[in-house]
Amino acid sequence: MSRTWMFGLVIMLGAAMGTGSFGAILGEWALTSDGAGTSEESGKVTVGDFIGGSGIGAITYGGNGAYANAWTANATPDPADYYEVTLSPQAGYGLIISQIDFSERRSSTGIREFQVRASTNNFSSYTLLDTVPVPDNDSERTHSILNLNLQVQEGHTFRLRFYGYQAEGSGGNWRFNDNTLKILGTAMSLTGPPVVGFVPGSGVQVHVSNTLEVSVSVLPSGVITDWWLAPVPSGSNGLVGSTFSFTPVAVDDGGTNTLYVVASNSYGVSTGTLDIAVTAYLPPGTMEITFENDGEIKSSYNLGSVTLSGEVWIMDQARIGDTAEDVKLGSRAACFGSFYPAYMVSSNKLLPAGLGSISFLYAQYGGDETAEALLVEVASDAENGPWLGVGRVDANGITVLTPFEATVEVNEPMYVRIRTDYVPDLGRVNVDNIIITPYQTPSYSDYEAFLLQYNVTPGDPGTAPDEDWDGDGYSNTNEFDNLTNPYDADHHP
Q1: What are the residue ranges of CATH 2.60.40.10 in the chain?
Q2: Residue 257 clears pLDDT 60, i.e. is over it
């Protein structure tokens, strides 16, 4: 049978999921005394050493990890300035690489940006996995490159390189922290029944109004012979080629559906399963800001703009943080500073139908002992205001992400601003997963519509059907049946 695999990258969009570990540790590097690596899949994978390109200085290893200097000051990567690790499948195996974890830091004159690249042909060509701006500080930053589907065929070597550049001084160093560099995935036997894999894997979640896409892999060579979801959801779903898609509807909210995929090859038949949890109904047209999409990066607290979910936001004294101290769901979250009033404001009016609600998760920045309060405001004129406050949260002492939601219910587009209620000497605040839902016209019963014509809000005191607010001896139901005014004692059946 054929053992030819393609080396590819599949990134799935639309899945809202937590950060987890996907697969076994194919390679990990302690970096405390040398560059040697180890693997949980001994006998299946050969792990190469952590090495440096010819353009950088000698690597120094110690209790805090490995570092080198002499990184290029150029605005783009130098082909010789990199760290590299390698993985090679042993005879009879192939690799599926699903996740890369690492933690790094720069010295005060170290690099200001790096790229992560992968190749299986000794960099005759490569796949760019990430480009990461580095803040102008020496804090540790933790990274996870998730939802990969990098396949390495037998007889090939997977090379992973980290190119550092924009160094602020030739003596500036860039460190990979000890016991943080790991490559996760699966070492796949090429001489057995197929194994069905999913990316994202290990269970996924999807908002009701979003479309989830999952890459389905069958390795070694095999074909998909059947698939189904159980229980059968109301939303649309389908498997086309190797991509499964699922768009739930509101009635699917709160359910868990299991995807079953059956595959076969010359060695036998096997079934793979993936649980899909449908969570958090979001009306169509909802804006969801996760800070995880490509380009959603702002490393400085200085005034600047960033595009989030297709809309430009202005941020001042606020950045998008990815450090270990930033409290976040994924790899990044907004961080509001504490030296001056900090804010993020939409540069355009949001949502054509108007605003229904604004919600997010918030917490005190992990590196501070205190935290500012946050105000949530809307306005029809961002320059002249007035800004209408719709909510306030006090993040002081809140060390884990905590939900906040404010009802807006304005039936026209509005500017949105989140800012600190500035108090000197208080610390920073993290915000993640901002969700802005559209205004929805209320649906009233005939009885509620009857009350509304008298400028009365259904549910207020005196509006129950058996009540008699005006004391004329006729209940609201009697007045409704006869279309008389339940708030005028002289107007009754």
Answers
A1: 195-279
A2: yes
